[in-house]
Amino acid sequence: MSKKKNYYLLGVIFIFFSFYCAYFIRYEMVGDYIQFLTVLLICISTDIGGYIFGKLFKGPKLTKISPNKTYSGMIGGYIVSIIFTSFFFKYLYLLKENTSAIFDLNVFFIVLIISSASQIGDIFVSYFKRLSKIKDTGKIIPGHGGVLDRIDGMIFAFPVSFIIVKLFY
């Protein structure tokens, strides 16, 4: 990306804000690391579900910005993130003693919101990669588009989670 573009400074500010939000959720929130792991799990399972369902069921394209994204992948991302998060909550006591979490309707909607933010982040970063004519953002993970493709959803999901925490908890 050219440093002369108008969105460069805005991007840098947003990245720092995103990392601050991740830091806040991990270290500053009451309730230690469980919320952080939950956001990570939602983002990772959304990516996995989107990829698997998109490859299996194909279907109409979601957007021209990212031509490999399909509606079936989007729905699969939601389904897998809900399933993984419900299992995480069910077996949370194995990770940390005296902890119980209930996967209720509120958590269901929070998972949908965070999963949506993750998918929007994925599309948004793809848009800027296309503007900059960049296919892969690194060679550390060959065939996966680079490290940025692993964290692009998280860059948007952590600020959304931060806002949810500040508004409702």
Could you give a quick summary of the protein structure above?
With 169 residues, the protein is mainly α. Helices cover 70% and strands 0% of the residues.
What fraction strand? under 5%
C-alpha Rg (nearest Å): 17 Å
Low-confidence stretches: none
Coarse structural class: mainly alpha
Say what oligomer this is. Answer: single chain
Structure write-up:
The chain is mainly α and 169 residues long. The protein has one domain. Helix content is 70%, strand content 0%. The chain has helices at 7-28, 34-57, 71-90, 92-95, 105-131, 147-168. The model has no long low-confidence stretch (mean pLDDT 85).
Q: Main traits of this protein?
A:
169 residues, 6 helices, mainly alpha
Topology (SSEs and partners):
Blueprint: H1 7-28, H2 34-57, H3 71-90, H4 92-95, H5 105-131, H6 147-168
